[in-house]
Amino acid sequence: MSEEREALTMDTFTQGLWKDNPVFVMMLGLCPALAVTNTAANALAMGLATTFVLICSGLLVSLLRKVIPKQVRIASYIIIIATFVTMADYGIKAISLDLYKALGAFIQLIVVNCIILGRAEAYASKNTPLRAVVNGTGMGLGFTIALLSMGIIREVLGSGTLFGAQVMPDRFQPWSIFVLPPGGFFVLAGWLMLFSWLRQRNTKQEVA
Amino acid sequence: MSDAHAVAAPSPFRLVATLAGIALFSGVLLSLTYEGTKPIIARKEQAALQAAVMEVLPGAVSQRSYQRNETGWVLLNEGAEGANLYEGLDADGNRVGFALTGEARGYADVIRILYGYDPEQKQVIGLKVLSSNETPGLGDKIEKDPAFQENFTALDASLEYPIRTVKNGEKEHPWQVDGISGATVSSKAVGKALRESTAQWVPVLDNAIEGGEVQP
Fold first, then answer.
1. Across the interface, which of B37, B135, B136 has its CB nearest the CB of A93?
2. DSSP for residue B89
3. Distance (Å, rounded) from C-alpha A61 to C-alpha B62?
4. What is the sign of the dihedral through the CA atoms of A123, A128, A131 and A132?
């Protein structure tokens, strides 16, 4: 495969951070992006758990890319992904029960996060382990940054705190709507507007 | 396309062997993780529950746990599982009260509470929500709202009148719980959990104390 001979470039890593950001550009993984970004800490934990699963499953899928027959590849990927998700689940429970309670079922639901299966199928299964890990790290961090940028806004406006510490003046009345599900949609819409505006501006500049 | 498929088609044995191999690897990895994290998780859960018992029994510095079985109450060793009654003791070893659990359906899901009960005063002396899934900003006020928590510093649980949640600002009697406006369902659920749990446990506890089954 010609792809495997491609050199490891910076782009392998930054693809997920900006150009193909999973949430803001590819619009993948919106379910956790809306559900667990009501505080910055939840968003960070969710992003890191997903990054862990992305890197580990990417590595394993890439290592086994010549062993797994095409016919059973999806089933194999799902087993591999589910294994690492369950490990992350136990890990988070051992790190903090409060965090585990806050993230609820969304940890287990990383299994069906399309970013991960998408990376396994479209990238890791066709590239060397090193490239898969680097790309997975980039994608995971891009996802974490996207979740954090939503979580920070929602927590500051919705509860007046950031990572649990008060940041807004005492007389600030928290806009509870931001920690409720509709607030997730508002914040996501705001970020998507910003991103499409940036994209349009870039295209216009190229044309001009 | 069918040509490529025919060329690549491996034997069914190979397909099964691959899946079985991956599943085996997954199983090994998971049992290692499970065994590794199990003691940590159990310790954290135990610590969280112990902290909650201390919280609902103001003044308690140590605790004992009991389990009820067919013959009566059994004192459990520290860290043992299966307790359904916790006793809080103050610095002199006197009983502060008992911590009991209760649950009732809230707005979103079942609300589980732990509350402190003082058998001498026949009062609820503290309450903590162990788990709930109430609406953030509205129903979850039952967990943190100081005015609501104030209800449970001396709530009459003598069973002469059952515990009831009333509308915000209408509390008149010591057995009433002053509800939260905007969180009616959630605050009523806390009242219901207390009413049902006290109705079940208070007579049992009174008997146990009279009969000397629970150490004084």
1. B37
2. E
3. 52
4. positive
Pull the structure tokens for residue B106. 């809230």
As for how many domains chain A has, the answer is 1
Q: Is A118 inside any structural domain? A: yes
Structural domain including A195 reads: 13-207
Pairing of strands B85-89, A161-162: unpaired
The Cα B116–Cα B108 span in angstroms is: 25
Domain spans of chain B, in order of start: 41-210
d(CA A199, CA A19): 10
ipTM: 0.78
Listed residue (B95, B87, B91, B93) closest to B53, CA to CA: B87
- Nearest Cα of chain B lies from the Cα of A120 at a distance, in angstroms, of 15
Beta bridge partners of B127: B115
Q: How far is CA B168 from the centre of its chain?
A: 26
**Which residue shows structure tokens 């010609």?**
A2
Q: Judge contact between B164 and B195, C-beta under 8 A.
A: yes
Q: B2, B7, B11, B18: best mutation site toward chain A, by most A Cβ within 10 Å?
A: B18
Flag whether A6 is in a domain.
no
The SS3 of residue B109 is coil
The verdict on a CB contact (< 8 Å) between B37 and A94 is: yes
**B103 token code pair:** 């649950």
What string of pLDDT tens digits covers the 216 residues of chain B? 444 445 557 888 999 999 999 999 999 999 999 999 999 988 888 888 888 888 899 888 888 888 877 667 777 776 666 777 888 888 887 888 889 888 899 888 899 999 999 888 888 999 998 888 787 667 878 888 888 888 898 888 888 888 888 888 888 888 888 888 888 899 999 999 999 999 888 888 888 777 766 654
Amino acid at B182: G
Sign of the alpha-carbon torsion through A74, A78, A79, A80: positive
Contact yes or no for B104/B142 (Cβ under 8 A): no
